[in-house]
C-alpha cells in the first residue's frame, strides 16, 4: 500500500511585477494558510516518509511550512525540477521515479497540472476533483507495492481539503 498527498502551493504574491514566475513568494494569506493546512494534516496523523517539492519559491515555501507543522525536518525535503509547471503525465512520471522505500509521500506543485493529475488519479469518477485551490490537498491510497505501478484511475481518494473548507 502506498499513500500520496498532492499539495498545490499556497497563495502567492504578485506584488513585484518584475519578479520571475519561479521566484514569486507566498503572500500573507499563503503564509497563514500553509501552517494551518499542516496542522490539519497533523490532526489526521499524517507522517510522510518523503516530501518532494517543485523548487519554485512558492511551492518550496509551502512545503517547508507544512513540514514544520508536521515535525518533518526541512533538510529532508527533496526538490524535483520536473514538478515546476508539470502536466499530469510529467507528475505521474515523477511519482513513478520515487524510491519504493517510501510508502507515504507528499508532493508539492502547481496548477493546472496538479488539478489534471488528481482528477485523473481517482478511480471513482463520481468523486472527481475539478479544481485544486491554493494550498489544496488531495490524499490517495494505492493498492500497489511499487511507485512504478501507479497509474491514472488506480487511486482511492482518502480526503480532499483546502483552506476555505471550514
From TrEMBL:
Residues given in the record as substrate binding sites: 58
User: Highest taxon of the source?
Assistant: Bacteria
One short Pfam name that applies is His_Phos_1
Note the InterPro entries from the entry. Answer: His_Pase_superF_clade-1 (IPR013078), His_PPase_superfam (IPR029033)
Which CDD domains does the entry mention?
Answer: HP_PGM_like (cd07067)
Stretch list, region Disordered: 18-40
List, alphabetically, the SUPFAM superfamilies matched.
Phosphoglycerate mutase-like (SSF53254)
In the record, which residues are listed under signal peptide? none
Protein's name according to its UniProt entry: Histidine phosphatase family protein
Family matches, as Gene3D superfamilies: Phosphoglycerate mutase-like
Q: Compositional bias of type Basic and acidic residues: which residue ranges? A: 21-36
